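Lecture notes, structural biology module. Today: joint structure prediction for complexes of two components.
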Amino acid sequence: MTRTILTVDDSTSMRQMVKATLISAGYGVVEAADGQEALDYARENSVDLVISDVNMPRMDGITLIGELRQLPAYRLTPMLMLTTESSQEKKQEGKRVGATGWIVKPFNPVQLLATLKRLL
Amino acid sequence: MDKDDINHLAPLLLLAVRQLDAALLDASAEAELLSRAVADLGVRGAQMRDSGGESTHAKALPFVADAQRAMRALQFHDRLSQRVNHVRDALLRVHGSVATGQADEWQKLNESIRSLYTMEDERQIFDALVPRSSDRDAESCEEAQRGSVELF
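The predicted structure, tokenised, for the full assembly:
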């Protein structure tokens, strides 16, 4: 069964590259341009893993993860932050709201796929 | 700073902001085209790798590896856009402060601008150049963090 990954980033080019990486490994991909769009999608559908940027308009990635963790269907879903932010303070914030891991951009496609394999 | 200085400085700051806006807009359309092309090449390479015979599979592997390297490198645009945006927002705050005549609250403004710089190497540059009001924690090297994966 194809695993579906929700990728959330306000940068079109980042979404394109994450999507290409995931599709080339056989994953299904759903894209959202900000946290609110992702949350709206997640409320009506289920996905197997979430990869989200932090800084986005309307709803940031930290708030998104916190909101998703409140939904029973997403209590155990792996959620990765993919961001330029690397401060311990931000990472702790992500951990506190329930992020599963933290990847600092630029992501390495091979490494990203290896991480997903571990989590799914 | 007298009123005449402020009258000259405020529009120059705003000009710098607008120039950065134009540069970001100009670059983003091209970056999207480029990343779409590289992403498509990566997907096509993976399709060749997975659906062809043994010889096609072997030929596709370096093609996929090249596309992956290009995808990693192309993320420079996302990082660059964020850095330019941080500078733009900082200039806008200085402009707001100067234009409203609150330029005497430099320390407050400095801290507010520092909070805009969310990448660690940006903060290191800021801390090296802007006078400090209090001790700030030593932060780890940004270069070492790039591309890192940390599972909680």
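Point to remember: The mean pLDDT of chain B is 84.
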